[in-house]
């Protein structure tokens, strides 16, 4: 409308100003839209000339500018081609940057897994290994809380190691004091469980939620062979969903942690077995140490108490004549 009134007042060809919208449309939407805008602008310009009193084609061509028309079409087409080229280059740059970031993340992820494996080979201290693991995974997956809770053979809590702002709470919290809990669920079902809103689930104690600001979490079973050892839990202070590739990566890390825990447990069990066999051998030697039966019993109780880590050990004999134990 502005161009229309300028045209009437000044009787001059302002169609060249159509290069602005034609160029913009061509840049953002392609050459076809730019050319269409140019053609529409020229049509409007001709209508303005006719409305202003120019009736014949020769008058319109005289007032109008043929080179300007050609330039307008060329500008719109050129803007469209340049815009398309720019978008293509920009898309390629974004795709390349995204691929490089994913590659860096994968390298970092594999580095963490290798670190877990190396720790399992180098250390026999479970708590020390888990402290490094929870810190590394918390950083890698940008979690607010990272918890590893391990069971013993009786399904009772053995050790819980946490990293994050609420680690003191989690380190002393017994997840399994309630029958329905997330650790039992992931171990029984052998699958991870994601809670996008923990307030809507009965797998997390409301007493715990009063102490920690967790809004979403995901838990993975720590299983190696037939050993159900515990769970890896990643917690977030904001509500969020979990992508499939993210779940797959965490599951792979959980499997690696389970293998590392099993290696430490097997080594500890082997050491304990050797110690027991050595103790039994020492017990068998007591019979040849002395012919004094009282001294033999004293040695037996002393060594047996040390072997099974008992505070006291008694050997009580039954007297069939007196029918008493002494």
Fold and architecture overview:
The chain has 326 residues and is α+β, with helices and mostly antiparallel strands. The chain has eleven helices and seven strands. It has helices spanning 2-10, 19-29, 31-51, 57-63, 66-122, 126-140, 167-172, 182-189, 206-209, 244-285, 293-308; strands at residues 145-151, 157-164, 193-195, 216-224, 227-236, 318-319, 324-325. A five-stranded antiparallel β-sheet has the order 2-1-5-4-3, with helices on both faces. Strands 6-7 form a two-stranded antiparallel ribbon. A hairpin with a 5-residue loop joins strand 1 and strand 2 (157-164). Helix 2 runs parallel beside helix 5, helix 3 (31-51) packs antiparallel against helix 5 (66-122) and helix 6 packs antiparallel against helix 10. Mean pLDDT is 79; it is low at 1-12.
Secondary structure blueprint with pairings:
Layout: H1 2-10, H2 19-29, H3 31-51, H4 57-63, H5 66-122, H6 126-140, E1 145-151, E2 157-164, H7 167-172, H8 182-189, E3 193-195, H9 206-209, E4 216-224, E5 227-236, H10 244-285, H11 293-308, E6 318-319, E7 324-325
Antiparallel strand pairs: 1-2, 1-5, 3-4, 4-5, 6-7
Helix pairs in contact: 2-3, 2-5, 3-5, 5-6, 5-10, 6-10, 10-11
Concise overview:
With 326 residues, this protein is of the alpha+beta class.
Key terms:
single chain, 326 residues, alpha+beta, 5-stranded antiparallel beta sheet, two-stranded antiparallel ribbon, rod-shaped
